[in-house]
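Batch job 17 of 40 flagged for manual review because the log was empty.
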Amino acid sequence: MPNMDLEGVNRENSQMITNYIPSMLALARQYINQGNPSLALEAVVTAMKLFGGEHGVYWTLHRAREMYQNRTQENAAAEELAALFAECAIAEASPNASTRPPLFNDGDLAGSSMLTDTSKTSILAKSGRMQVVMDAFADGSSFVCLQCGGLVSNLRRDEHLAYWCGQPS
């Protein structure tokens, strides 16, 4: 065995590491394709340790987390914007969009007897969820049954009154 100086050993180890990393990454891809994400992550972390040590792993994972959080925030904003556009499109396409009642706040119904009756009987109002009740009135999709206090879809009004409360109006 020939005598090698320290520089030669380091060069040889460096060459082995650079040859080993691509094979570890290929193995990680294979694990992903097989449905083993944990083993794939382990292979990637091993490759990162070989290349940059523990600090390299920490830095890479920290950067990946930052990128994920930024993308998540961007996606949430995009989804909110898409939902807003969808609401606008539905409101415009609705045949009775001009006759649709406007959305209102707590103060808008404060004097109405309907709100007073609802706040006494509605299960949602009693549990502090009055906004849900007001939204149901606003979009016209539901009503609060004055007999049982339940929030009921207008599509199920007859069935509710006939089978649940037993006293159709």
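Reviewer: the log was empty due to a logging misconfiguration, but the result itself is present. The radius of gyration is 32 Å. Unflagging and moving on to job 18.
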